Amino acid sequence: MTTTWLDEVFAVRKPVIAMLHLSALPGDPGYDSAGGIAAVVARAREELDELQAGGVDGVMVSNEFSLPYLTKTEPITAITMARIIGELLPAFEVPYGVNVLWDGRASIDLAVATGASFVREIFTGVYASDFGLWDTNIGEVARHRARVGGAGVKLFFNVVPESATYLAARDLAALTRTTVFATLPDAICVSGATAGAPTDAEALRVVKSAAGAVPVFVNTGVRAENVAAQLEVADGAIVGTYFKKDGVFENRAERSRVAELMAQARAFRERLG
């Protein structure tokens, strides 16, 4: 079997990456200034313990509660995330990545600063979104990654962004093929409308068929009851909402829910041989 970068980073087939959603940060409307950074770190540490004890293959740290999101973040966001991740570093037992929503350049900077293996972001396309007109410049971002020493940081491209519609009249297969050819993603993510929303199964199949050798991840809506079916198509999964108490976005990660989904994922991998 040919070894891929996924094998080298995660050492398992079809890895499941858990989202570690940070509480609102300084500058965010929902920031708890009374609790301060200490409260954010305490919650993050607690949830990281739950995710790793439940058996996930990797973790991605994001500022998920920085609602409403910016498409170009303020410096305080990535700076604070770097402080938080620095405090958590001794606790990481699995490969980790970062995502500064919705800012690809800041995500790469944070990965380089914290030693993260991968980032996920919207790196290509122009969209009409809940956050306004959303433009990108992958050529600029790719050159920035090279300048800051981030060539080894793997880039997960989300080609079906949440809360947004691609403005060009192109089908998903064509979009995937040109993204792979012209922008050199390390992996492609396929999402539903929002965090926790189901990913369209047909869209996932279309992207996988068009992506060639580039790994494809299902990015939202993965649950214990569908993880095997999703991994039948996808090369891996990114899971956030399902791992939380009662499957509610705002709640904290719960070990029993993590273990339930990971048991199904491991059983599926065992059937692959």
Automatic annotation (TrEMBL):
InterPro entries: Aldolase_TIM, BtpA, RibuloseP-bd_barrel. Belongs to the BtpA family. This is Sgc region protein SgcQ. It holds the Pfam family BtpA. Gene3D superfamilies: Aldolase class I. SUPFAM superfamilies: Ribulose-phoshate binding barrel.
